[in-house]
Design goal:
about 230 residues; mainly alpha; 10 helices
């Protein structure tokens, strides 16, 4: 896949700076993508409300099964589709709301990648939290690899682990900053939360974009395959 080389370094500051510029350049498109994803998630939220009102254990059990299946089969792939939308935006490509459904071309691997990533990070968190943070940083590029480069789930996990060598600390610091950005968004109420979330997504897509283009360039200069 060919696209313009990132003109910024894969640092925390550059990623957030590029993410901020991207946010405003593609605000309407990214806002509509987020709105559509929210609408599609309504069945789970509505069912959850009804179960809380009813309060019976059978209903709670049905909700757990329904929400798990809906999350794995529908919301997980759509979340990856949203990551792809942000990636197209940071690469200054023609972004359309329909790109949210780009996962359909590699649906099974997208679904498996999302499931495996969550399981691995969950196991890491269970192992006294720190391993979970490490796993989250090392697997941060999985969504982009599996949906943009059409990798299978296992290959995407392996490639993300390798790609983040030398950048995991940057990703960790970006995650810490994201917490404060999210808090700032909460203080600014609804519009602040929306802008904060969009900025964070755009910034993480930005660091992937920068690392990816640099590694592609290095591979081309050395004559090796990516």
């Amino acid at each position: 896949m060919e696209y313009t080389k990132a003109d910024f370094e894969p640092t925390v500051g550059d990623a957030y700076n590029h993410g901020w510029k991207t946010l405003w350049k593609y605000f309407l498109e990214l806002f509509l993508v987020g709105l559509l994803l929210f609408i599609i998630s309504i069945p789970v939220n509505a069912f959850s409300f009804l179960i809380r009102e009813d309060g019976n254990w059978f209903g709670i059990g049905i909700f757990v099964v329904f929400s798990a299946a809906y999350g794995i089969l529908i919301l997980g792939p759509l979340q990856y589709g949203m990551y792809y939308c942000y990636l197209k935006a940071v690469r200054r490509e023609n972004l359309q709301v329909g790109d949210l459904f780009a996962f359909k071309d590699n649906y099974l691997n997208v679904m498996l990648a999302a499931l495996l990533t969550n399981i691995i990070i969950g196991i890491g968190i269970f192992m006294l939290i720190i391993p979970g943070i490490i796993f989250a940083c090392k697997l941060a590029f999985v969504p982009y690899l599996v949906i943009d480069k059409k990798m299978d789930a296992i290959k995407a996990l392996q490639t993300s682990w390798q790609m983040t060598d030398g950048y995991a600390v940057n990703i960790f610091v970006m995650g810490l900053l994201a917490i404060f950005i999210a808090i700032g968004g909460l203080i600014a109420f609804l519009i602040g939360v929306i802008i904060a979330a969009m900025w964070i997504y755009a910034s993480f897509a930005s660091i992937y974009y920068s690392v990816d283009t640099r590694q592609l360039e290095e591979a081309e200069s050395s004559g090796s395959e990516v």
